[in-house]
């Protein structure tokens, strides 16, 4: 039976279609203002890619912040449980999962089969999330994809003091005006975020293997810094953004088996 | 944003508290002009105030009333406009907003508070209060008495020096009250009040014992409400009667095996203060078979000692230095909570980090470490106990849901 997992996040909505152990297709779209609508669009896109119709989907599980407003989902599971499950599907040795998403950051400890043991999330603050990096990319006139690579080219990393995303933006603007190299500023920004994330990881206790999921998993500068702080090599799925949706799809598969 | 406030109550006796509290505040306003009014912190022994016929107004309680009526953001904002930082105790900010907010403050619940003639604060457990009450004393130009309660070394303290000091503090406190009211303390009346208060306390201890039962006969949603008479009406017959009825109802529920949920799947401890503006959160686990079976705040640990001395003040001094959980060090407080976890068959713990309450906050990291070491599932959530602006529904619900999934997924 074909099942679907939908991860309605703050920035992006993701859908994964699963049949047995095969990912048939996936989609990643911007969530926009209407979460319910984006869930439908994400699912439709994944269906189109796999040449399937909605009637062929046997069960749908929704996750992410928008999970409760997906009218056509049979069930909801939190993104914490889904990321643990999805990460273990990609890497069965995963015991610590770091999900760095658009709005929040989650350090997750899990055991075999991706069963959730413990977690910590950033509280009431956007620093250390994808939104923060988006903001900084705009300030530095760069695309999001360029940030990580450039941050690794720094020669004299600049220390960023502000822990607030909005104040950090002002600090970065000042530093650029002072003539600092943006690669050095970027290195400082990445280090500041990595340090915050590291505290979350310490809070749950890091056990190998460490898997990084979420959009920031695509940022090589961030991954390298986290690896350096933790002292472990991080495993990153080929498409780290769909891990939550895949976890949801795996729960959907459980319900139908 | 908070969508609802009151916790669901399962015991009919709990429902009486609402009327008791309403009446208590109404009578306080009615007594204006007939009695001197003392604005008090928690832990000021109400028996002594009752025995001298003082109209006692407990400010921390009023702050929780404001929070439960969803007025905390308005009062806190007013307090902050008056210059108090968001890092200051939420209770203090609410009251400073009430005092100084003028027309910009929300309408005060229960018609407001009786205007004080003097202020009394206890140094026991919380340090923020001392600064808060000193500020009010300055603002209102009214006398303040600080009743000092010494810290307590591990294992309790019965040594003569501590008892002597506490007795001298209580006697000095009585002298202050006598000067303020022009009334001499009737020690016979105090003895009666003290005996009644101890009886009510002992019944509460019995009820706490009963709550070890499975299924839980009374959860935190009821428990955080039923502590009220014992905290603010101690020494009255009404309070004593209330706990007798409550004990009978809890006992009946145990005998009939009436729990909070049809099938108890996991039992939780709520560590720290609840979020007074959103008490229904305590019921959140119930749809999934979970019960907040016990709390570590307001917990009544031990029954009263038999009278230690003929003189009630000396008796109070001896008894009050025996067991004061918040006067001890972190190790002692930690052990008390770990004992509760064991005795109440707790499967998981919700650690409520109340950022503006230093007293409660400081236990939580040590407790979290201990829980992690023991493999006891725990969830950390950070929200102020009184300032509803610190609460974010989506974020909290995601954490609670994930914790529930973890609790239901099996072994520790």
Plain-language structure description:
The complex is a heterodimer of chains A (257) and B (412). Chain A has 257 residues and is of the alpha/beta class. Chain A has 2 domains: 1-91 and 241-257, Nucleotidyltransferase, domain 5; 93-236, ATPase, nucleotide binding domain (Nucleotidyltransferase, domain 5, 2-Layer Sandwich), CATH 3.30.420.40. Helices cover 41% and strands 22% of the residues of chain A. Chain A is globular, with a radius of gyration of 18 Å. Chain A starts with a strand and ends with a helix. The model of chain A has no long low-confidence stretch (mean pLDDT 92). With 412 residues, chain B is α/β, with parallel strands linked by helices. Chain B has a single domain, classed as Rossmann fold, CATH 3.40.50.11900. Chain B has 15 helices and 8 strands. A 4-stranded parallel beta sheet of chain B has the order 2-1-3-4, with helices on both faces. Chain B has a 4-stranded parallel beta sheet with strand order 6-5-7-8, with helices on both faces. In chain B, β1 (37-40), α2 and β2 (55-58) form a beta-alpha-beta unit. Chain B is globular and about 65 Å long. Chain B starts with 15 loop residues before the first helix and ends with a helix. The mean pLDDT of chain B is 92. Chains A and B meet through α2 and β8 of A and β8 and α15 of B.
Task: List the SSEs and their pairings.
The complex is a heterodimer of chains A (257) and B (412).
Chain A: E1 2-8, E2 12-19, E3 22-30, H1 35-49, E4 57-63, E5 75-76, H2 79-90, E6 96-100, E7 105-110, E8 116-121, H3 130-139, H4 144-151, H5 165-177, H6 182-204, E9 210-213, H7 220-230, E10 234-235, H8 243-256
Parallel strand pairs in A: 1-4, 4-5, 6-9, 9-10
Antiparallel strand pairs in A: 1-2, 2-3, 6-7, 7-8
Helix pairs in contact in A: 2-8, 3-5, 4-6, 6-7
Chain B: H1 16-30, E1 37-40, H2 46-51, E2 55-58, H3 59-68, H4 72-81, H5 90-100, E3 118-122, H6 128-140, E4 144-147, H7 160-181, H8 187-210, H9 220-232, H10 237-255, E5 266-271, E6 290-295, H11 312-320, H12 330-343, E7 348-353, H13 358-361, H14 363-374, E8 378-382, H15 393-408
Parallel strand pairs in B: 1-2, 1-3, 3-4, 5-6, 5-7, 7-8
Helix pairs in contact in B: 3-5, 4-5, 7-11, 8-10, 12-14
């Amino acid at each position: 039976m074909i099942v679907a997992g939908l991860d309605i996040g703050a920035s992006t909505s993701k859908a994964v279609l699963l049949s047995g152990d095969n990912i048939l297709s996936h989609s990643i779209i911007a969530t926009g203002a209407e979460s319910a609508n984006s869930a439908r669009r994400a699912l439709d896109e994944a269906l189109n890619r796999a040449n399937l119709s909605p009637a062929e989907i046997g069960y749908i599980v929704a996750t992410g912040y928008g999970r409760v407003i997906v009218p056509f989902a049979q069930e909801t599971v939190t993104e914490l449980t889904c990321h643990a499950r999805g990460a273990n599907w990609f890497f069965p040795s995963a015991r610590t999962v770091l999900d760095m998403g658009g709005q929040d950051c989650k350090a997750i400890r899990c055991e075999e089969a991706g069963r959730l043991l413990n977690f910590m999330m950033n509280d009431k603050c956007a620093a250390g999330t994808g939104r923060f990096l988006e903001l900084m990319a705009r300030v530095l006139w760069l695309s999001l994809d360029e940030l990580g690579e450039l941050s690794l080219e720094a020669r004299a990393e600049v220390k960023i003091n502000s822990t607030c995303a909005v104040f950090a933006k002002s600090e970065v603007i000042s530093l650029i005006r002072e003539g600092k190299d943006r690669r050095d500023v970027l290195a400082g920004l990445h280090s500041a975020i990595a340090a915050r994330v590291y505290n979350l990881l310490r809070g749950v206790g890091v056990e190998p293997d460490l898997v990084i999921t979420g959009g920031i998993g695509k940022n090589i500068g961030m991954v390298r810094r986290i690896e350096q702080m933790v002292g472990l090599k991080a495993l990153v799925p080929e498409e780290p953004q769909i891990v939550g949706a895949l976890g949801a799809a795996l729960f959907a598969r459980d319900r139908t088996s | 944003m908070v969508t609802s406030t009151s916790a669901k109550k399962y015991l009919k006796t709990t429902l009486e508290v609402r009327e008791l509290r309403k009446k208590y505040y109404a009578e306080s306003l009615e007594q204006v002009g007939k009695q001197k009014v003392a604005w008090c912190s928690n832990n000021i022994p109400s028996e002594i105030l009752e025995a001298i016929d003082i109209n006692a107004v407990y400010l921390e309680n009023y702050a929780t009333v404001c929070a439960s009526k969803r007025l905390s953001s308005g009062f806190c904002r007013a307090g902050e406009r008056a210059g108090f930082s968001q890092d200051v105790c939420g209770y203090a900010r609410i009251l400073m907003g009430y005092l100084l907010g003028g027309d910009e403050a929300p309408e005060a619940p229960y018609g407001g508070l009786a205007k004080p003639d003097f202020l009394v604060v206890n140094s026991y457990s919380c340090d923020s209060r001392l600064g808060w009450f000193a500020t009010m004393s300055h603002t209102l130009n009214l006398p303040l008495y600080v009743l000092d309660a010494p810290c307590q070394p591990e294992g309790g303290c019965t040594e003569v020096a501590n008892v002597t000091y506490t007795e001298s503090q209580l006697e000095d406190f009585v002298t202050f009250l006598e000067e303020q009211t022009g009334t001499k303390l009737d020690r016979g009346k105090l003895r009666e009040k003290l005996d009644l208060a101890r009886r009510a306390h002992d019944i509460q201890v019995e009820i706490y014992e009963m709550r070890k039962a499975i299924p839980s006969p009374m959860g935190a949603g009821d428990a955080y409400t039923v502590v009220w008479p014992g905290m603010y009406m101690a020494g009255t017959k009404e309070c004593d009667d209330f706990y007798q009825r409550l004990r009978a109802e809890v006992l009946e529920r145990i005998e009939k095996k009436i729990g909070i949920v049809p099938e108890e799947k996991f039992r939780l401890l709520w560590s720290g203060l609840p979020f007074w503006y959103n008490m229904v959160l305590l019921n959140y686990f119930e749809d999934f078979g979970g019960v907040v079976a016990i709390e570590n705040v307001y917990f009544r640990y031990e029954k009263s000692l038999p009278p230690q001395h003929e003189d009630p003040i000396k008796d109070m001094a001896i008894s009050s230095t025996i067991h004061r959980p918040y006067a001890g060090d972190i190790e002692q407080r930690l052990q008390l909570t770990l004992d509760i976890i064991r005795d109440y068959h707790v499967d998981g713990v919700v650690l409520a980090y109340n950022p503006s309450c230093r007293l409660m906050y400081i236990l939580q990291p040590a407790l979290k470490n201990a829980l992690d070491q023991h493999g006891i599932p725990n969830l950390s959530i950070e929200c102020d106990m009184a300032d509803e602006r610190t609460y974010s529904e989506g974020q909290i619900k995601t954490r609670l849901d994930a914790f529930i999934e973890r609790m239901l997924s099996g072994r520790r």
